[in-house]
Amino acid sequence: MIVGMTPELYRLLHVVSLLVTFLGLGGMLAHEVGKAPKLFGAMHGIGLLGMLVCGVGLMHKSVPAMEWQPWVFAKIGGWVLLGALPVLVKRGVLTRFLALMLALALATGAAYLGLANPKPF
After folding, report:
1. pTM for this one?
2. Structure-derived torsion over alpha carbons of residues 34, 38, 40, 45, reported in degrees to the nearest 10
3. How many whole angstroms separate alpha carbon 119 and alpha carbon 69?
4. How far apart are CA 3 and CA 39, in angstroms?
5. pLDDT of res. 53
6. How far is the first Cα of the chain from the last one, in angstroms, to the nearest whole number?
7. How far is CA 29 from CA 9, 51, 62, 65, in A?
8. pLDDT tens across 29-83, in order?
9. Which residues contact 107 (CB under 8 A, 6 or more apart)?
């Protein structure tokens, strides 16, 4: 375990991971399907992993420690869908534009859930 991992540091790394995820997603969707450099796919995957690890770390480091409430599972569902977007575009299920709009909606919803922590969700 890294000494000095405060909730603020977890929150910062969570947001940085989100930015890396969206940079990778944007790079993959901006190129023709199957032609994007592998760097963008790697950024997308590393960002997703960072978001998950830092999000769970933030929950455990918060005072008092957060419980696994329904809004947390909603955020995890959005995370899974965000990870699946490139595959859905590649298989023709979604257009690139629709995938980007869905990613924006997922990020907006996740930000609301993370900031508001709605109890009766």
Report:
1. 0.86
2. 100
3. 8
4. 31
5. 95
6. 33
7. 30, 20, 35, 37
8. 888 766 778 999 999 999 999 999 999 998 888 767 667 788 889 999 999 999 9
9. 18, 22, 82
Residue 103 · residue 51 · CB < 8 Å: no
User: Do the beta carbons of residue 71 and residue 118 sit within 8 Å?
Assistant: yes
3-state secondary structure the chain: CCCCCCHHHHHHHHHHHHHHHHHHHHHHHHCCCCCCCHHHHHHHHHHHHHHHHHHHHHHHHCCCCCCCCHHHHHHHHHHHHHHHHHHHHHCCCCCHHHHHHHHHHHHHHHHHHHHHCCCCC
pLDDT at residue 34 in the model: 64
pLDDT of residue 116: 87
User: Nearest CA to 96 among 49, 12, 53, 34?
Assistant: 34
